[in-house]
């Protein structure tokens, strides 16, 4: 197990009963992390692609209560097939 700068345990990969590691899922906030007003932030699409290529399941979250799921999914698909 890895540790952060102040000594807390940080799990990157979870061992399984079959002896190999499962990559931890990654949660990405949409507003201010992936995009601003549905326009991708520089490097965000590429970073998400690298996470997926490394075997992580990328999940998107938001605290934007006015946006519908359909709107968010369409915006993710539009900026690079992220949905």
Topology of helices and strands:
Elements: E1 2-3, E2 9-10, E3 13-15, E4 21-23, E5 26-29, E6 35-36, E7 39-40, H1 44-53, E8 58-61, H2 69-78
Parallel strand pairs: 5-8
Antiparallel strand pairs: 1-2, 3-4, 6-7
How would you characterize the overall build of this protein?
With 83 residues, the chain is an alpha+beta fold. It has a single domain, classed as Rossmann fold. Helices cover 24% and strands 27% of the residues. The strands form four sheets. The protein has a two-stranded antiparallel sheet. A hairpin with a 2-residue loop joins strand 6 (35-36) and strand 7 (39-40). The model has no long low-confidence stretch (mean pLDDT 81).
The helix content is 10-25%
Uncertain residue segments: none
Order of helices and strands: EEEEEEEHEH
Number of domains: 1
* Strand residue content: 25-35%
User: How would the global form be characterised?
Assistant: globular
CATH level-two architecture? 3-Layer(aba) Sandwich
- Could you give the distance between the termini? 31 Å
Average pLDDT taken over every residue: 81
Please tell me how large the radius of gyration is. 15 Å
The CATH topology turns out to be: Rossmann fold
Q: How many distinct helices?
A: 2
CATH class descriptor name? Alpha Beta
The count of DSSP E runs of length 2 or more, i.e. the number of strands, is: 8
CATH superfamily: HAD superfamily/HAD-like
Largest sheet: 2 strands, antiparallel
Q: How do the strands line up in the largest sheet?
A: 1-2
Structural class: alpha+beta
């Amino acid at each position: 197990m890895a540790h952060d700068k102040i000594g807390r345990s940080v799990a990157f990969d979870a061992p399984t009963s079959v002896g190999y590691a499962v990559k931890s899922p990654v949660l990405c906030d949409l507003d201010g992390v992936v995009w601003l007003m549905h326009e991708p932030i520089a490097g965000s699409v590429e970073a998400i692609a690298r996470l997926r290529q490394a075997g992580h399941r990328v999940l998107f979250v938001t605290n934007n209560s006015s946006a519908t799921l359909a709107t968010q999914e369409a915006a993710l698909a539009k900026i690079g097939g992220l949905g």
